[in-house]
Design goal:
Blueprint: E1 3-7, E2 10-13, E3 18-25, E4 34-40, E5 47-53, E6 59-61, E7 69-73, E8 79-84, E9 93-100, E10 108-109, E11 113-118
Parallel strand pairs: 2-11
Antiparallel strand pairs: 1-3, 3-8, 4-5, 4-9, 5-6, 7-8, 9-10, 9-11
């Protein structure tokens, strides 16, 4: 079973940037088809943000973050990153990473890291 630990959240002004990191332990990211980022704002449902297909590095984004966020991975296969630029107040949420062995359902998820964007 993989354990996921997110870091890098914080308070930033609108227009600023943050780099989120997701570290895997117990099982390597290469064991999974997809690694994704999700977010949940207060009073709202969790929403998909971005994902990376481990086999070939293909990346996918929600329309709301396309062009502003970039998902990437390290060469060792132990870290996944989410570079967030041009942040908006509506990006405020708890961001968590997740893994999928099926490519459709995300079975494991971390506790998340808080991102707060002030206007």
């Amino acid at each position: 079973q993989v354990q996921l630990l997110e870091s890098g959240g914080g308070l930033v002004q609108a227009g600023g940037s943050l780099l989120l990191s997701c570290a895997a332990s117990g099982r390597a990211f290469s064991s999974y088809i997809l690694v994704g980022w999700f977010r949940q704002a207060p009073g709202k449902e969790r929403e998909y943000v971005s994902s990376i297909r481990w086999r070939d590095g293909s990346t996918y984004y929600a329309d709301s973050v396309k062009g502003r966020f970039t998902i990437s991975r390290d060469s060792a296969g132990n870290m996944v990153y989410l570079q967030m630029n041009s942040l908006k107040p509506e990006d405020t949420a708890v961001y968590s990473c997740a893994t999928s062995r099926s490519g459709r359902v995300y079975e494991s998820r971390g506790q998340g890291t808080q991102v707060t964007v002030s206007s």
